[in-house]
């Protein structure tokens, strides 16, 4: 059934009239994004997500204008099975970055209704502290069944957030399907969250997802779960030791943690995590200095009972390591080329299906494929030939 043919549910309130938001000019949007205005940033993101060609064109024009100010953020992908506590984890570690003076953007991809294309639950309701913080921007983006479309808009949203001056861009995935691979292709650091349970997770986790992870965190390692979490940690470490060395030169880490205990006050103080001296420096490394694994700031030692001390420092250490060995920039360059090719494919697809000649034949061709009159391959050739006429 085509989208246009789906039955439309009656409105809950037939007397409600949708308010039309204020229209902003190109200059207002551009200057607003560069100034870090969250209202205008949200409007620019809405434009690049729009299916209306004119609105999307305006959004892309704004994006092109602010592109010189992008590329300075640390892009972090966070994934995990449903119920692993991704939102609580993000709020817990995000609080430490906020204590250090950084700005954080959280781009959350929720499970969506296949009928309404709307998010079931926005992360603003699951991150109460961060949702109201002046240096945090949370954007729930529904994964509407089109992974390619999600990838395109997520990249554009990420770049707009970078131009708005956010130091950390956190991309949270649904945790199911192929979204992990897509998100991994967009970020600098990929973090996999798992639950205590040892062998059960290993059996259910695809090898490819584990190979992508720069860090695996066993969450919910509270009292009663700690033995199971430690066993899972050892099993993951053993599994990772069988994989070939990562191109980044970074050996993936495995830690146990409790986001719940961290949120309840079990973490470090502002002074211990760097305070005002820990703000991102111009060269992109926290605190304006590099460090290695032997100094206190880069150590893997865990002085926090929640496990977040080690995770917090490992992310910083990863960035310092990969910037120093050149992998960080190399990966960014490779991603840019990949994005270019994916954009070409997306544009060609949209141009194809928006062609009036294709639209005119599509329903009839689909019916013939459905009844077996012609094969899918022959149907594709017919439709491709329509555009050549």
Structural commentary:
The chain contains 15 helices and 7 strands. It has helices spanning 26-34, 38-49, 53-66, 86-99, 128-131, 147-163, 179-184, 199-204, 207-212, 226-241, 259-266, 308-325, 327-354, 356-370, 376-386; strands spanning 74-80, 104-110, 136-142, 168-172, 189-194, 215-218, 253-256. The two termini are 28 Å apart. The protein is an alpha/beta fold and 389 residues long. The chain folds into 3 domains: 21-68, Single alpha-helices involved in coiled-coils or other helix-helix interfaces (Up-down Bundle); 70-325, P-loop containing nucleotide triphosphate hydrolases (Rossmann fold), CATH 3.40.50.300; 338-386, Helix Hairpins (Orthogonal Bundle), CATH 1.10.287.130. It is globular. A 7-stranded parallel β-sheet has the order 3-2-4-1-5-6-7, sandwiched between helices. Helix content is 47%, strand content 10%. Helix 4 packs parallel to helix 11. Strand 2 (104-110), helix 5 and strand 3 (136-142) form a beta-alpha-beta unit.
What would a concise description of this structure say?
With 389 residues, this protein is of the alpha/beta class.
């Amino acid at each position: 059934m085509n989208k246009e043919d789906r039955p439309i549910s009656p409105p809950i309130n037939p007397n409600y009239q949708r308010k039309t938001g204020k229209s902003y000019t190109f200059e207002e949007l551009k200057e607003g994004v560069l100034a870090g205005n969250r209202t205008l940033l949200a409007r620019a993101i809405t434009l690049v997500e729009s299916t209306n060609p004119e609105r999307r064109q305006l959004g892309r024009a704004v994006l092109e204008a602010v592109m010189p100010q992008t590329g300075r953020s640390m892009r972090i992908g966070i994934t995990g099975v449903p119920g692993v506590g991704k939102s609580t984890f993000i709020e817990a570690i995000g609080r430490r970055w906020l204590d250090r003076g950084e700005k954080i953007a959280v781009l959350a991809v929720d499970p969506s209704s296949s009928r309404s294309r709307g998010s079931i639950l926005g992360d603003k309701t699951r991150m109460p502290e961060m949702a109201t913080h002046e240096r945090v921007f949370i954007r729930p983006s529904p994964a509407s069944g089109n992974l390619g479309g999600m990838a395109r808009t997520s990249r554009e949203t990420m770049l707009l957030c970078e131009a708005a001056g956010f130091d950390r861009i956190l991309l949270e995935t649904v945790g199911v399907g192929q979204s992990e691979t897509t998100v991994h292709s967009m970020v600098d650091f990929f973090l996999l969250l798992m639950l205590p349970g040892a062998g059960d997770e290993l059996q259910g986790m695809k090898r490819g997802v584990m190979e992508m992870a720069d860090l695996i965190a066993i969450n919910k390692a509270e009292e009663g779960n700690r033995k199971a979490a430690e066993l899972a940690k050892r099993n993951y470490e053993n599994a990772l030791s069988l994989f070939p060395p990562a191109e980044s030169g970074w050996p993936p880490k495995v830690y146990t943690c409790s986001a719940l205990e961290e949120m309840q006050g079990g973490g470090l103080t502002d002074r211990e995590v760097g305070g005002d001296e820990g703000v991102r420096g111009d060269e992109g490394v926290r605190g304006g200095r590099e460090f290695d694994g032997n100094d206190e700031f880069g150590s893997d030692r865990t002085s926090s009972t929640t496990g977040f001390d080690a995770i917090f420092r490992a992310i910083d250490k990863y960035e310092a390591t990969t910037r120093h060995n050149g992998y960080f920039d190399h990966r960014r360059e490779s991603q840019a080329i990949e994005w270019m090719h994916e954009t070409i494919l997306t544009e060609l697809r949209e141009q194809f299906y928006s062609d009036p000649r294709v639209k005119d034949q599509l329903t009839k061709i689909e019916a013939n494929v459905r009844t077996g009159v012609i094969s899918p391959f022959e149907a594709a050739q017919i439709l491709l030939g329509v555009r050549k006429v």
